Each structure stands twice: as structure tokens, then as C-alpha cells.
Amino acid sequence: MKQSEYLKILSLSKRTLEEYLNWGEIEIPKMPIDKRSSKEESVKTFSKKKQPESVLSPKEMLETLKRTIDSCKECSLGNSRLNAVIGVGSPTADLMFVGEGPGFDEDHKGEPFVGKAGQLLTKIIEAMGYTRENVYITNIVKCHPMIDPINPEKRSNDRPPTPLEMETCKHYLDEQIKIIKPKIIITLGASSAKCLLYSEESISKIRGVVKEYKGIKLMATYHPAALLRNPSLKKFVWDDMKRVMHYLDTGEI
Class for domain 36-250, per CATH? Predict the structure, then answer.
């Protein structure tokens, strides 16, 4: 191994240790067994050996879905957005994060969770032993819900999606889940949790409680934006993430 590779590993290890301290940990929790790459390899092997040539891979199916969403005008959000924000990450991810909808930064870049809240989510993912590339990150609605939809260049113009907007767009999320087949879904914030769980309970009541959505384990937790406003919530989110890590490692939750 080259010296530069050793230095890179040391740098990543140092950053991981610093993140654990930041989240209040005094010891390093056991990381999930890395089944992500093997899952991808099994999909590739299957596609090479058993799949008919006409069958699309998960990556190709997501790309086809993206083209459909890019042209979607099923609700008014499609008329004011700059970019449809489909999702990012592995097409065979075991772990899926679902927020409520893209904001200003996401609308401009076309990628979910890239603003300040997204940067915090990235730190959470890395503290769990994953990267944005081997999980999957998306939202209930794929277009930016705005207070003033005629002015997409305006900052502080975000709002939560309405129940109707979420119900209109949710079939795209259902298709993503069907393609990716994650082992567990983490909803971020009240809107996405209430939409998928058909619940009117507050996020403080339903976070950390394991439910199911379409036969897949689902855990609701606070949105990273809530942690930026109230850092005391970080402990609860990290407790939730440790349960998810344990489930991915052992199959028990």
C-alpha cells in the first residue's frame, strides 16, 4: 500500500473518532457488517448469469424513473421548481433516508440534502460507518415546495409539502423503494413520518419506534434541521442510529 493511502486511512480514522466524541460517545460502537458491496456484487452476478438481457438493472430502472420525474407535472410543484430532485446513492442500498422535500440549495443543485441540514446528515451517515454513496437519500416530494413559487431564486422561501402534494408524489418514492429494496428506511422529520405511517402523532412521540412500510422496517427520527436549531436532540437521533446499525449488523431490532 502506498504511503498516500496510509495517510488517507489515518485521516479518515481521526475524523471518525472526532465524530464519535461530537455525538457524545465514549467508546466506538460495533460497525455493521459490510454487506453493501456484497449485495451489489450479487446483483451484478445475477445480472450476468441469470437475467435475460431485456431486464434492467436497479441503476437503469432508477435512471428510467428519473426521466419520468424530470418531466412530471402531476402537481403545481412541477411548474415552479428549477430541478426535480430524485435521489442519490446506491441503487442496491440496505439503508434509505427519506426527508420531506428539497429546499433552495437542493432545487438549485438537483441533489437531496446538500444544504446545512444535508451536511449534518452526511456526518451522521459517516459516523454510522457509511457514506452517501452506499446509502440512498431521497424525499417524499421531488420538487421544491415554496412559499412564493414565482420567485425560486429567493432565499428563506421553503415550506413543508402539503398532504396532497405528498400523496400525489408518493408513488415515485414507492417505486424507488421497490427498485432498491432497502432493509430499513429512516424518515427524517414529521412530514415524511406522518405520510408513510399515516399518523398524526408528533415526531417526538413516534421517533425511535420501529414500524413497517410495505413490509420494510421503518424508523422515524428528527430532521437534521431540527438538530441545527436544537443540538440537544442529537442524542436522541444517535440513539436511533445505533439501533439501525444493530439491526443491519444482526437482523434484530
Answer: alpha beta
